[in-house]
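Hey, can you fold this one?
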Amino acid sequence: MARGDQIYVYREFMNLKGVYQHHGIDCGDGTVIHYRKPSEIVERTTFETFSRGNSVYVVEYKNGFCFIPDIVVSRAESRLSERKYNLLFNNCEHFATWCKTGISESVQIKDFIPVIAHLKTVGLYEPLKEALVGADPSNAKTLLQSALGDIKVVWDDLQPQYTTALKEKEAWNQVAKKAIEQNREDLAREALTRKVYYKKQADKLKEELDQLAIMAEKVIKDLLVANQIS
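Sure. Predicted structure:
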């Protein structure tokens, strides 16, 4: 690790470990600039405060443009005290990636694909509303609906792909069985190749779907923290 590096640690979510990455910029002097949690302000803290005793890793940009270290740190410093945190559009990874490459993006967010069906999000707001006694429920509801709405857009796009992959896998499995029954080894091999292809697609989408369940939970937890609800 060195001055100007984009670094990250794995942070716990509730009783789960390694659920998400917390990113920052190494200033090379024992401090790190990052969107600190739970304040959600861009701050310069000690390396120890950033790591919380966890292992620290460096984001590698082997084939992409990066600013020189002094510029990276300067860009991070230019946003000190910023209070514009947004889990989906301006989180700690968006900030650190912008400092390093000039592009505000979060690989974590891109990789979280939906499984909202597991959480039955239509009914998620009722328990949240009960917890927000004394807060501004109308504002809280707007924030929650906006965040879950953005996740739902991705769900509506990818869920059909997952369903199609499952159907294709099963269809090619049946073709392979019939080909074997007819002693058509050439056709069976081709069918099995296609079956494996769609199985890999389905497995990848299922993994991403499961990850979104955690993302949806995190959206709700972040909202509770933002409203200082215990």
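The helical segments are 47-51, 69-77, 92-101, 107-111, 116-119, 125-131, 137-181, 185-226. Let me know if you want another pass with a different chain boundary.
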